[in-house]
Amino acid sequence: MGLVFVWRSSPFLVSCLPNPYQPQIDTHSLLNGTRMNAPSLQPSQIAVEMRDIVKRFPGVVANDHVTFLARRGEIHALLGENGAGKSTLMNILSGLYTPEEGKILINGREVIFHSPKDAIEAGVGMVHQHFRLVPTLTVVENVVLGLDDPKFRLNLENAKAQIRALSEQYGLKIDPDAFIWQLSVGEQQRVEIIKALYRGAQILILDEPTAVLTPQETEELFKTLRSMAEKGHTLIFISHKLDEVMAIADRVTVLRQGRVVATVNIEEVTKEKLAEMMVGRPVIFRIDKPTIVPGKEVLRVENLHVRNDKGLPALNGISFIVREHEIVGIAGVSGNGQAELAEALYGLRPIEEGRLYLYGREITHASTRDIIREGVAQIPEDRHKEGSLGNMSLSENLIMKNYRRKPVARGPLIDWHYVRQFARDLVKRFNIMAPSIQTKARLLSGGNLQKLILARELSSDPGLIIAMHPTQGLDVGATEAVRKQLIEERNKGAGILLISEDLDEVMQLSDRILVIYEGEIMGEVPADKADRNEIGLMMAGQRLSANHEQHTVNSVQ
Amino acid sequence: MEAAFFITILATAIRAGAPVIYAAVGEIFAERSGVLNLGVEGMMLVGAVSGFIMAVKTGNPWAGVLVAMLAGGLLSLIHAFLTITLHADQVVSGLALTIFGIGLSSFMGQNYVGVQGPQFSAVHIPFLTDLPVLGQILFSHDILVYLTFLLVPASAYFIHKTRPGLHLRAVGEDPATADVMGISVARTRYIYTFVGGVFAGLGGAALSLAYTPGWTEGMSGGRGWIAIALVIFAFWEPWRAMLGAYLFGGVQALQFNLQTIGITIPTYFLNMLPYLFTILVLVFATGERMRRHLGAPAALGIPYIRGER
User: Fold this and answer.
1) Residue A2, in any domain of the structure
2) How many structural domains compose chain B?
3) For a surface tag, which of A396, B10, B100, B262 has the fewest beta carbons within 10 Å of its beta carbon?
4) Residues of A in contact with B290 (CB under 8 A)
């Protein structure tokens, strides 16, 4: 699949545009957030002005008098942890929510949005994290969806020509006649951007746009964003990844707990400073990981073939091993077989071909129950659907894997007295914040629910841990806790298979990294010699070069 | 004799297929918008009886057709209100609608069983009807049969080649996206659920005013269910639904005509044939669908609540 496209810059288009963004005299320092040396704002330069926005949800104030300004032609990052109110603020700007207080000005004119349609008419487009594309429709059908033109008969030639023109102008390569389901995630994102541009968006909001991209695709996206900014578009970039913000943004607004911490020019801050603003305390980026020589083999996967839910091959002959004291990271763009791999290892998906061994014993066709009994723990992808039973209490969730055995089981009965003791211990040990052990699991926050799952899975001292996206959607604090916990298990002797789309996480935690692409392993690199670019290329389907392969063979032996 | 036999079979297939085509095409519209309406059987029956009563009272079969369509449409609005506005379970609501429709039609029609009423009779189309063989098979029918020849291509065109059709498909596949793109999911679903009811009612009228004129209790004989099965067989495409309806009609025609040419198979077995055939077709079609990865509209049967993904 052509995930990587050659960027064709169009210096002509850029240079022939008049540049209205000359430095101006500082007459509106008020509007500039904090002190800065950069050209200050003329009112005419302000594309978006949100003043004193208040939005409440049951139990929380998502936006507490937030004031946000973005200039024309800038890339403005909106930084904050999960739940800081970034998405709420931008959903207000894109017309999805109505604020309780405050006002919005677009290009100096006050606007009131009742629906995304109103926002689009005012020139505000949003690219959501979960794409708003209908998979069974073509690119062009998705682009014209909801518009009044064409009137009745779907004559799409006009629209196609316009899409081609836009894709030429902004370097967003796309085939208008392709179906969405045929496209890679990166291509789908291009369709979303084109959709916004087609509707005449001057202000484009991107909600965590890089979460689903390979490093190379991210680079492509950044180039597109820069060229759009040069053409006078305003780009608002929602993120919690500091490196990206440092790389792409002109200015940053940091939100914490629904309030603006500050708006700063990117040259004036460091990554560490931003992290501190975001979290409210200094953050340690490196996790201490002592070097330990891996021990005995825990898991051996040989030539594994598995099909996905549609009956198509998902894994095409994957082989690897995981040893004691070792974290093996599986990096890759989502949908390349990771979910199927985790399910196959856990006995949840039939294995077509190949063998699995746990401590040298074959478990290829073992049931999930047997695999649990053998000491395999799983941190599933979806905390709510697979990781917990929402309507059952915390203590019931905690015994879900050992209720058949003593001491939880007493004959056919459950020793509830023991269970309460057991649950209280775990709540304390794993620092789970909950009103009581009788609280229903679905009422826990994401971080606490993940801690609950970790507590259950790790309390049985597993020999193998299959962790899938263990920190997805968690805030910085919870992420730190989960990662430390995994490292600790590794130090104690467990073998860990870490499946994650977050490349930073994989690189930080793993001892070895395998890159998966379309159900095959593209290559293996030791984490201390890992190179982001190289991994990125493998994530896009390029195999590791020969000299590295040599290394891989050695490390397996 | 051989040729005449096959011509009769084919002509009967087309006549018998017409009521099912209406119901199936209507259900395709409803399901394309994401609403599974299992009330087709009920709506057909109420359409059949109310259309027949109206035709008897006015002496005009067209008035009957109109009332039948209206009755089917109104009944479908109950389902629409329950499932779209109140987010009730579509399967439960649809089943209730069918049971309600069976009861209501029996109640309404109790004084009309065996009553003679106006009916649509075969219309001779100059030139076309006179064609050899083809004329007898295709153009020896009543007006409601001819209308299906127009309805099917028009529906296929509407779904695939028009803007409202695009919006219909989008709502059934991905209502959250359609919503964000400014398409009203509730409005779209109301409209096409209503359209589904209107066509089911029309299918009922095609039974009581044309195919088997008159009213008898439960006269649809499971055709509503067959229509729902055909929608799956048809992969939600009108043309394939038409083909399926003719296959069903053909088996039914065979059932009549085998008896007339003296093949002695128990009648109960023959009566069973069309339904057995439907089950087989469903098994085959589902297998093919799995192989070709053709799916139902992705949001079929799922209530849409804004903000839940």
Assistant:
1) no
2) 1
3) B262
4) 311
* Domain presence at residue B245: yes
Helices (H), A182-337: 185-198, 215-230, 242-248, 271-279
> Of B111, B144, B62, whose CA–CA distance to B54 is shortest?
B62
Tell whether A86 and A224 lie within a shared domain. yes
ipTM for the predicted complex comes to 0.84
Q: Which residue in the set B165, B169, B183 is minimally distant from A146, CB to CB?
A: B183
Residue B215 β-bridge partners? B113
Window 249-308 of B, Cβ < 8 Å to A: 290, 293, 295, 298
For an interface test with A, the pick among B177, B179, B293 (most A C-beta atoms closer than 10 Å) comes out as B177
The position carrying tokens 């050209």 is A39
Residue A100 lies in a domain: yes
Take residue A151 and report the two structure tokens written for it: 């009137």
Count other Cβ atoms within 10 Å, centred on residue A80: 27
From B238's Cα to the closest Cα of chain A, the distance in A is 18
Last residue within a domain, chosen from A279, A298, A326: A279
Classify strands A203-207 and A234-239 as parallel, antiparallel or unpaired. parallel
How crowded is the C-beta side of B309, counted as CA atoms within 13 Å?
A: 11
Q: Which residues of B touch A116 (CB under 8 A)?
A: 180-182
Q: Are residues A182 and A249 in the same domain?
A: yes
Q: Quick check: is B188 in a domain?
A: yes
Average pLDDT in chain B = 89
What are the pLDDT digits (tens) for B225-242? Answer: 999 989 988 889 999 999
pLDDT of A390 strictly over 50: yes
**CA-CA-CA-CA torsion for B81, B83, B89, B94, nearest 10 degrees?**
70
- Averaged pLDDT, A31-57: 68
Alpha carbons B72 and B220: distance in angstroms, whole number: 14
How many domains does chain A divide into?
3
Q: A137, B293: Cβ pair inside 8 Å? A: no
Tokens of A224: 């597109």
Give the model confidence (pLDDT) of A249-264 as tens digits. Answer: 999 999 988 899 999 9
Q: What is the pLDDT of residue A285?
A: 62
- Measure the CA–CA gap between A137 and B8, rounded to whole angstroms: 43
**What CATH number corresponds to the domain at position A524?**
3.40.50.300
Same domain, A185 and A95: yes
The reply to whether A414 and A502 lie within a common domain is no
Inter-chain CB proximity B161 and A141 less than 8 Å: no
Domain containing B278 equals: 2-292
* pLDDT computed for residue A474 by the predictor: 78
A410, A441, A460 — which closes off a domain?
A460
CATH of the domain at B200: 1.10.3470
Tell if the CB–CB gap between A132 and B180 is shorter than 8 Å.
yes
Cα B155 from Cα A38, distance rounded (Å): 61
Q: Tell me if A135 and B176 make a contact (CB, 8 A cut-off).
A: no
pLDDT single digits (tens) B97-154: 999 999 999 999 999 998 988 989 888 888 888 888 888 888 889 999 999 999 999 9
In a domain, A109, yes or no: yes
DSSP state letter for A138: B
What range does the domain containing A468 cover? 286-375+462-557
The answer to whether A94 and A119 have CB atoms below 8 angstroms apart is yes
Q: Which of B163, B235, B286, B308 should one mutate to test binding to chain A, selecting the residue with the greatest count of A CBs within 10 A? A: B163
pLDDT of residue A181: 85
Q: How many residues does chain A have?
A: 557
Task: Specify the pTM.
Answer: 0.75
Q: Which of B173, B216, B212, B143 is nearest to B31 (CA)?
A: B173
**Residue A154 contacts B where some CB pair is shorter than 8 Å:** yes
CB spacing of A154 vs B178 below 8 angstroms: no
Picking from B164, B290, B298, the nearest residue to A311 by CB comes out as: B290
Q: Is residue A13 part of a domain?
A: no
Q: In what order do the strands lie in the sheet with A495-500?
A: A376-379, A464-468, A495-500, A326-331, A512-517, A520-526
